[in-house]
Amino acid sequence: MSVPPAAHASASDQLEAALVRIADPQRQGALVFTELYADEARAAAAASDRRLAAGRALGPLDGRIVSVKSLFDVAGDTTMAGSAILRGRSPAGRDARAVARLRAAGAVIVGRTHMTEFAFSAVGINPHCGNPGNPRDRSRVPGGSSSGAAISVVDGMAEIALGSDTGGSLRIPAALSGAVGFKPSTGRLPAEGAFPLSPTLDVIGPIASTVADAALLDAVLSDGDPAPASFPVAGQSFLVPRGRLFDGVEPAVATAFEAALDRLRAAGAHIVDGSIDAELDALAELDRIGVFTAIELAATLADLGITALDGIDPKTRARIEAGGKAPAADYVRMQRRRADLIRRMDDRLTRHPVLLLPTVPLTAPAIAEVLEDASFHRVNMALLRNTRVANLFDLPAISLPVPAEGLPVGLTAMGRRGGDRSLLGIAAGLEAALKG
């Protein structure tokens, strides 16, 4: 599905163009990248060019420029996961498993990218690492937690980005910045060597400019077959879950989303209005018990011997402290409730296997708007509301940019658990129809 770099430019030329963009102060590359591997990337790009010239390419990812979120281990560097409190950790002894697979496939890793602290925020700001602006409007947030990943792709600093998603961290910045973000089913891609926010909910995945490139990275990391070719939308049926996931949607988002549905109808898709509010009621019952991210991050920090949380952003610290006080019995109850949620949603999707909804209910807010605690938490919860459904119910989900006036708007397609390859093929068809 992806065009190899040899078809249009050498890997070295592609890399040099990316490095020029990273060095451009207007693109804020110094904030977007926490580490830049220019020399290593040049060597990798030159090696790729030699392989392609000799007809020995390692595959379709060979020579592609890839950025890596700062929670993935890179041998010889300390993994800070966006937090100053982890600066004293020992450097990683080896690459994260996903990073090693990228290198083995010939990817040119240009650097590690900005993220929110511990990946524990959807907004995209970080008091320890600075606040890079949205590539469509630098005064606005890029979304998180894979903030730098999305910016690197949209601003041409990388062709594909490797990020992670616990409640929307791939899809939220993709939607707010105008990219494609794919969240796979749990366990599809290797998370070994990625700093965990919530081992229960964490997945890793791509942000890219196209579904084809997202599917390419997914195929390489899953060590499986490539995603199927694009499935035309004509004759396919999609469920739009009207109800609480549409409450409070900004007019600009609603207009762009409904116009996107009209394009899909014109391409022959069957759009069916329905509801998953019964399943969301069951999710609300789980939420009343506790929050996986807060509980599991508190446990991870305790395992690292970090008991003093003074160096953590107060917005994040309060949630970690609350999670650390959760009773063990509540955590067990949460795991059991989530297993039931997964079964219920899988049964629900036997009738309509793909849901369509706005990725997030708002366009990117101004950075100045979210610096105050109350506004930050309000925006953070709003951004997570729709995307976290896929994590809690363990559904593959992909956010696609839709035509919109002004700031970017994302449309999400969610599929059945384990149906990742099928969803990627459907997403390619959706992408083609949305582009007209």
Automatic annotation (TrEMBL):
InterPro entries: Amidase, Amidase_dom, AS_sf. SUPFAM superfamilies: Amidase signature (AS) enzymes (SSF75304). It comes from the Bacteria. Pfam families: Amidase. Residues 16-424 form the Amidase domain. This is Amidase. The lineage of its organism: Bacteria, Pseudomonadati, Pseudomonadota, Alphaproteobacteria, Rhodospirillales.
